[in-house]
Design goal:
heterodimer; A: mainly alpha; 89% helix; 0% strand; rod-shaped; B: mainly alpha
Chain lengths: 47, 517
């Protein structure tokens, strides 16, 4: 049972590092475009 | 243990170099510029509080992640890692599970976004009347602001210990940090918060990944696991013991079955009721965006616990080789003291910028959220004459400033004893039990009414306060376990809602469909 938990936390820690790295690039690229679109929409509002 | 520094001598604390200061300076300047730049788009309270409901998916993920991963989060999870090993990250796994399920099913967040409200208590106006809305708003603000009260002090502690600055600089750091955050939050509101959250998400993610790799590289994963294990089973040569099982959260010495089961339910309430998280749902373009944001951000919350726990576990093993904690170090400040010996010049600047980002993104999101609740649910229902848009915006900005001033004084005067996680759980629970009950009843139980809502509010808050007083007076053997205290609060709140609603019929209450307009 102890080995199951060690394996579980090993997977969780390394998967978290990989996921954080992936999100840096994915959300970084997409989020930048969304900010550009957001500011464009806001500046084109009426009034 | 190749590359490990544990068995050797104590390492020198790295001091800030020019490149470290340059990295921190560039980050702060970029944040401030971006935050102030968004000010031009703020036209009214709707823009200020919920970004005109224009937030798209990835910006939402970045903002949600940045707001809910603060420097205080890194500190208390590292403290859990120091005291309980990797089992301390169990709450993060449960939270991620709750977020995914809620995102997948749309439980609470779907109808909440459809309702078009700006805050949770506003939803109660149609369903239960103004009195319930006001009282719920008061509970939300009390629990939220007290919860946030320790953020600045704990964040300042990290910076003092990781940079080796003198202890008296803690207050200056607290005020300086808050001043920067207030500057862009007061002017740009949620629009500034979203853009600065995005920048902070990037720098924070980079800093956490680099630190994680350095901690693993410093000691080796297998060695870290082995060191924790021998510290637990008592076979370490130097006799250092870890009191809790470092891997099995169900073990009696660790969290235990009861606590894990309780947290599994509690986290559902957190992700559907904690106003700072819900404010991202309410900013989203539509219901579908909000649900996808929850699903995609869910696994981030595993790392939110597991990676700082890794830092804390590394600190435990490092200091156990140094003969234990010395001087003013404790389980809370051990992690930054360990990182100060580990991070090389340049990387130290990156990590400090990352932790400043974590602190600032959380502070800005929380300041804005609680100010919005005070404006929307405590002041506006009491105002007889409608205020002009300019006055409403000015009022909200003043409230952000007022909360900021309160936080500085509270942070300076309140001496935090014991575990940070326990403090946050108790203050958060002041409103979670009662408001979660109201939220679920308002959305899913047609027979609920204002009598039940008032009973749930009172009973849900009496529970945590009673346990707080009892535990302060009782000796160690007669303390009430946190899972018993927490579960009882929710049970009392739901019981109050059911009995109150069935006992008092109220024709004035609106049906569920009316709440959702």
């Amino acid at each position: 049972m102890m080995y199951f938990f060690i394996l579980f936390w090993t997977v969780m820690v390394f998967a978290s590092i990989a996921w954080y790295g992936f999100l840096l690039f994915y959300v970084g690229a997409k989020g930048g475009r969304e900010i550009a679109r957001l500011t464009k929409d806001l500046s084109q509002r009426e009034d | 243990m190749p590359g490990s520094s544990w068995p050797g001598q104590q390492k020198e604390i790295v001091t800030l170099s020019f490149i470290d200061l340059a990295i921190v300076g560039v980050y702060l300047l970029a944040c401030l510029t971006a935050g102030l730049w968004m000010r031009r788009f703020v036209r009214g309270v709707e823009d200020f509080a919920v970004a005109g409901r224009e937030m798209d998916l990835n910006l939402g993920i970045a903002s949600l992640a940045a707001t809910e991963l603060g420097l205080v989060t890194v500190m208390y999870t590292a403290q859990l890692g120091y005291e309980k090993g990797f089992a301390g990250a169990t709450v993060g796994v449960l939270m991620a599970g709750a977020m995914y399920v809620v995102g997948r099913t749309g439980f609470v967040i779907g109808p909440l976004r459809r309702s078009g409200v700006m805050t949770i208590p506003e939803l109660f106006q149609n369903r239960f009347g103004t009195r319930v809305r006001w009282l719920a708003g008061l509970f939300v603000v009390l629990g939220g602001v007290l919860n946030m009260g320790v953020f600045l002090r704990v964040g300042g502690e990290f910076l003092v210990h990781v940079t080796g600055l003198p202890a008296y600089s803690l207050e200056l750091i607290m005020v300086g940090l808050l001043g920067l955050v207030l500057l862009y939050t007061v002017f740009g509101g949620m629009l500034s918060v979203l853009v600065t959250d995005y920048l902070q998400f990037l720098i924070m993610g980079l800093g956490i990944v680099v630190t994680s790799l350095l901690v693993i590289g410093d000691c080796g994963w297998n060695s870290l696991v082995q060191e924790l294990w021998v510290s637990w089973d008592g076979t370490r040569a130097d006799g250092t013991r870890l009191a809790a099982h470092p891997f099995n959260p169900f073990h009696a010495s660790s969290l235990g079955w009861g606590y894990v089961l309780w947290q599994a339910l509690f986290q559902v309430a957190v992700v559907t009721t904690w106003q700072t998280q819900i404010s991202r749902v309410l900013c989203a373009k539509d219901e579908q965006t909000a649900k996808r944001m929850y699903q995609r951000a869910s696994f981030y919350f595993v790392g939110r616990f597991a990676l700082p726990v890794l830092f804390g576990a590394g600190a435990f093993v490092y200091f156990s080789h140094q003969g234990g904690l010395t001087g003013d170090l404790n389980s809370r400040t051990a992690m930054p003291a360990y990182l100060a010996t580990l991070l090389p010049a340049g990387v130290l600047g990156l990590v400090i910028a990352a932790m400043l980002a974590a602190e600032m993104s959380t502070d800005s999101g929380y300041l804005l959220t609680w100010a919005t609740v005070i404006y929307n649910d405590l002041i506006m229902p009491c105002v007889k004459r409608p205020l002009s848009p300019r006055s409403r915006l000015l009022l909200t900005r003043l409230l952000v400033c007022a909360i900021g001033v309160f936080l500085v004084f509270y942070g300076l005067l309140y001496e935090l004893k014991g575990n940070v996680w326990d403090y946050l759980a108790v203050t958060g629970n002041i409103y979670l039990a009662s408001v979660f009950t109201l939220l679920v009843s308002a959305l899913y139980w047609p027979r609920s009414n204002r009598h039940g809502a008032l009973a749930a509010l009172v009973l849900g808050a009496i529970g945590p306060l009673t346990f707080l007083i009892v535990n302060a007076k009782a000796d160690q053997a007669h303390q009430i376990a946190p899972e018993v205290a927490g579960a009882s609060s929710f049970a009392l709140a739901f019981l109050g809602m059911i009995i109150g609603s069935l006992a008092g019929s109220s024709r004035a209450d609106q049906p569920v469909t009316e709440v959702l307009r």
